[in-house]
Amino acid sequence: MTDGESLMGSVVKWGLAPSRGQAPFKEESIMFELIPHLDATKGAPLYLQLYEYIKTQILQGHLKPGDYLPSVRALSNHLGISRNTVEGAYAQLKAEGYVESKPRVGLIINELDEEIHPLPKTKHEIKSSEKQTTSKPKYDFRYGNIDTEHFPMKLWRKCMNEAMDMEREQILWYGERQGDSELREQIKDYIFKARGIQCSLDQIIIGAGIHQMAGLLCQLFSTNTIAIENPSYDGIRSVFQNHQFSLLPISLEKDGINIEELEKSPSKIVYVTPSHQLPMGMVLPIGKRQKLLSWAVKNKGFIIEDDYDSEYRYESKPIPALKAFDTHDRVIYLGTFSKVLTPALRVSYMVLPSTLLKAFQRKFHRYNQPVSTIIQKALALFMKYGYLERHIRKMRTIYAKKQQVLIQTIHECFGEKATIIGEKAGLHLLIQINDVKNVERFVQKAEEAGIKIYSAAKYWFDHTKTPPPYLLLGFGGLSEKEIQEGIRLLKDIWKTSYSNNNIL
Predict the structure, then answer these.
(1) Domain hosting residue 226, numbered range
(2) Contact predicate 220/360, CB 8 Å
(3) pLDDT per residue over 196-245, tens digit each?
(4) In terms of pTM, does the model score above 0.85?
(5) How far apart are CA 111 and CA 130, in angstroms?
(6) CATH number for 449
(7) Beta partners for 371?
């Protein structure tokens, strides 16, 4: 049989005698219960098919550490394939560390780390995971979802095409370490007009999302203690925890972070969301902003300002960022295009104080820019032509209507039983339904009916100590009709559960 022929043998057991000079191996250690069809017409080379089969046997435990593989000659003769095919499969297994070669012995299976080399999924597991991924809720009030129907695809495609037409040296490389200078120039102008921030081009760093940027920040500080609002964004807390930071929760008052509590803490770094607190939604007033800045100056500390969705303010124009009032260069400003455009771009940015900028350049001078050069070029053009500002104005109107529909429908369905929190800005709000005490059970019942709503408990540091029974409802990714239908169905679930007395 040649390499070009299919090996159609059904059950073939490898009980081969060792070649001369090779140590004997146990027959049961190399039993392959089923040889797959090695078929040259499949598209994959035969050596790769054989490699995949042997690797699977190793991962599934049929071939165990210390077991030997047959010699190249013996296996090629037994299967009727060329030695080059077997040698290619063995070479790939050795290169990836599944086996090692021992002189005068042959190939032996290595001990593998189970976490690095997980067992392949069984058919049952694959079917189960497929069910989980394909069964989407009919109404998903997830915070972070955006309105994709109104994404300016034609304009974005135009900018992408223009970026692709640039000289190869401009787009087919890693790019500038701090980010494309044209994009940073556009961001500099944008945050001055929209957020009142004045900075130099050198202070702007472009990165791939808030988590990546925060991970860089963790390496710039001389301390590993940070104060954080409680409640606060759980994702950012995970970043600091993963970098071995001690987190000091600072409680909130009706108008934002408790400054007195912060002043009593030993921390010299604080993370805040002053323009739209996540998840509570309040805006930090000017008086507290000034006190917060004074705290940073007095303690020679830093304030990390996460300005994640400040563009969407519905009762008045967006207020200036905290960084706009920073005359002593103590505020680290974080911005993102995830909410104003799409999270798929993976483009965020930060404005570093000059003192930290020197540390950044020293520590990360060997790091490459993580964001695609082509995406950066296209985004710079998108901003240069005024498309971003036009899109934000349009989406502000659309999201304001969606939010109003959500609020009106909640009032219609729940009346005085529901309290709405944080409706002045952003793409989410909180509600508290008076009769709902067991939020997790209510969330589960809603999910069973095809509605995804979310408990806000995870935003509290210790969500096991009965945080307020708040539900977080994001509305960005739903149409006005879906919002109405989802809330009305939620009302039916609430009424049924309440009458059965099983959510109190």
Answers:
(1) 153-387
(2) yes
(3) 999 999 999 999 999 999 999 999 999 999 999 999 999 999 999 999 99
(4) no
(5) 31
(6) 3.90.1150.10
(7) none
